[in-house]
User: What shape does this take?
Amino acid sequence: MSKILGLDYGKKRCGISISDELQIIASPLTTIDTKKLMDFLKEIIVEESISAIVIGLPKNNRNNIFELEKTIIDEIKKIKVLFPNLKRVFINPNLTVVEAELCNFNEGCLSIPEIREDIKRVDSIKIDFYDEKFNFQSLNFSGILARVILHEYDHIEGILFTDRISKFKKTLIQKKLNKISRGQIEVNYPMKFLKK
Assistant: This one.
């Protein structure tokens, strides 16, 4: 079976996550220098049998265009030329729920290493978006792919998965979150921490 690659694009660094072969669980893979992204994708897509890449675009509720968005759109075009068999590119996505049930599932994120929590999300969504050729499309997704899309969409809205857990659970992991925010964690991929 094929896997899904998640891409959190940044001007200097990109966070990469990958699903398992059943496309049920996504886990952090690495963080790489953005200048090396295309070379990295050429290798990982073949080595890991990647069938789709989920890329978040920085949009806010006012639909303002950010400078980074233009760069990401250019990168999406390059990815589609280099890898014509990948499934979807979502530009300016708008999500709605389609007769869905709330389901618990254990999530993690490259931005918050070594922390995983059960997160309730709907299991079916409808997404209106523009594809890589800027044609409007409307599609339904369910299961893990809906969850991955919702997780990445949260990033666009400035939401991390830990913002979706109960206050009690967040209190239990607050010390770990504080250590991560201070850079007091070791991971097998590079991370940069903001100085206060």
User: Anything to note?
Assistant: Residues 3-181 form a domain with the Nucleotidyltransferase; domain 5 fold (CATH 3.30.420.140). The mean pLDDT is 81. The radius of gyration is 17 Å.
